Amino acid sequence: MNELEKKYRIVYFDQRNSGRAEGRFVKERISLNQFVKNTDHIIDVINQKYNNPSIILMGHSWGGTLGTAYLLDSARQQKIKGWIEIDGGHNWTGLEKESRLYVMNYAYQHRNEKKWKRVFDWYKKNPVINKNNIVRHAVYLQESHAYTPKEASGYNGYIIPIRKMLFSYYYNVINSNYRTYKLAGVMDTFSINLTDRMHKIKIPSLIIWGEKDYRISSKFGYEAYNAVGSVSSEIVILPHSGHFPVPADYPLFTKSVDNFIKSL
């Protein structure tokens, strides 16, 4: 985002129980509806503080879920100039089915190894990914190299220095995973599928997806592109990226975002 910050004012949102957000964890206030309301409050503050500027809503992964849910209301849509979804979770039910099949196929191909035979058998006993088995599924997904963009010029964008991983508040693996799965369980994100309502999104939309994303397969990028009701929408596939825009696709990512904003 450093490059985009040179041209645009960017507002970052640490939602409840995420990032550097503070305060108590109140289960009754953890919901997609609540996060949509919070987003709306922030957008109202931005409009008041900066005299109604042009606002582009951009979200990655869960941010794709939140952005989609926010824009399903026509009144809220009027506050937004354009929308960018990056490897988003607008269809959480579908993406978990897809990622489960990915690991099952990987395990089947390596079934001669005892470990992967056990994994394959585990998935047969767990036909649905939910809050009770998501952690184990996430581990198997990682171990099946689903996050590795193998053709990204030898660069693995998912390797974080150990010191940063352990001592950085943001990257601390234990803390971030604990928060993530706690939220997912409370909100039951696994039952979210907003695809059938995405036709209500009429504002210009840019869909950006990593071609090698097996956490949220690129098929969901095309699904979003075909589902939105905007007559001004486009999709950009990052050929070397997994779930995150890695440095190999950095120029394409920033150029795509920049061109989209300039077109509005």
Structure description:
- This protein has 264 residues and is α/β, with parallel strands linked by helices.
- The chain folds into two domains: 163 residues, Alpha/Beta hydrolase fold, catalytic domain (Rossmann fold); 95 residues, no CATH class.
- It has eleven helices and four strands.
- About 3% of the residues have low confidence.
Topology-level CATH name of the largest domain: Rossmann fold
At CATH's second level, what is the architecture of the largest domain?
Answer: 3-Layer(aba) Sandwich
Q: N-to-C terminal Cα separation, in Å?
A: 20 Å
Number of domains: 2
The best one-word shape is globular
Order of helices and strands: HHEHHEHHHHHEHEH
CATH superfamily of the largest domain: Alpha/Beta hydrolase fold, catalytic domain
- At the first level of CATH, the class of the largest domain is Alpha Beta
Strand order of the largest sheet: 1-2-3-4
Could you tell me the mean pLDDT?
A: 87
Q: Tell me the number of helical segments per DSSP (H or I, 4 or more residues long).
A: 11
Query: What proportion strand?
Result: 5-15%
**Structure class:** alpha/beta
Indicate the radius of gyration in whole angstroms: 19 Å
Major sheet description = 4 strands, parallel
- In total, the number of strands is 4
What percent of the residues sit in helical stretches (DSSP H or I)?
Answer: 40-55%
